[in-house]
Predict the structure.
Amino acid sequence: MSVPASNFDGAWKETVEVFLPGLIELSLPAISGQIDWTRGYEFLDSELRSLFPRRGSRRRVDKLVRVFFKDGRSQWIYLHLEIQSQASEDTPIRMFQYYYRIYDQHRMPILSLAILADPNPHHRPGDLDLRIAGSGCLFQYHVCKLTDFTDEFLEASPNPAAKVVLAHRIAQRTAKDPAARMQAKLRWIRELIRQGFPRGHLEKLFRALEAMNPLPDKLDVEFINQVNQSEGTTIMPIITTFERRIRRQVLAEGLAQGISQGISQGISQGQLLTLREAIRDLLEERFGHTPPGIGERLEQEKDPVVLRSWHRRTATIESLEAFGRILEPKAS
């Protein structure tokens, strides 16, 4: 039984946006203590896009954010999150490129942080030393290696970012063992509930867990049934609730054609409407509205399998513009 591919980059993008204070506290605890989080923070995505219009590499997350220190200073932080499954040797060069382009454009000192999520504990890129014969420069940046955190620390931590690191670790360890992944997901959820995370955090953390740790269809059904039986309504996942309800109905009806084909043949017009509404609800929760063009495209789509795939992407897509591009018809 094969394991579906993980969506690490989407899950981490949302984690950075939702749990930034926790992520900085986990990665740079000494510096996080100097930041006045009560004054809020601002993501400078447009500034980053203007300098790197084609930067959207898979398995990397880049964010530029303005924070305020407790002494009143405004500080820009460039956060580069490497999610490569294999170690990348050019990290120091990329960090330097971002630094000097941002500085050249805005003349702002930048605090640079690279978070490395690859599973190799020995991969530790260093500074970039460009000095020669008394000339040049030494570029230094902060590095946080996720493999440095022990399971015990992450499990005991009340920091939501630590729980995302655990979800990432589960995905890495169970990439070829779906049964082990299901059991690890169950333990992860039960521990968060035991620790008393608020409902809003549970929903967002569960979304990260789901994106990083998808299961084959039959195990997916078994997983959600076990969650419902053991936790009741304590956790209310919003990423694939309707999708799973359909799967359970299809399995109960014993459609031999398989999950995807059964859904395609068995969903009524009313269920199609519900799928569209589920997508709209999630778009409005994340971005505040559903643009008319996207709403029209949802109405035009008659294939429930396509709608299900859009619903899954809605939970982790970085912007309405990116979601609109997913809905564009493919050239034949």
Remarks:
- Strands lie at 42-43, 60-68, 74-82, 110-116, 128-129, 138-139, 142-145.
- Residues 238-327 form one domain.
- Confidence is low (pLDDT under 50) at residues 236-243, 245-267.
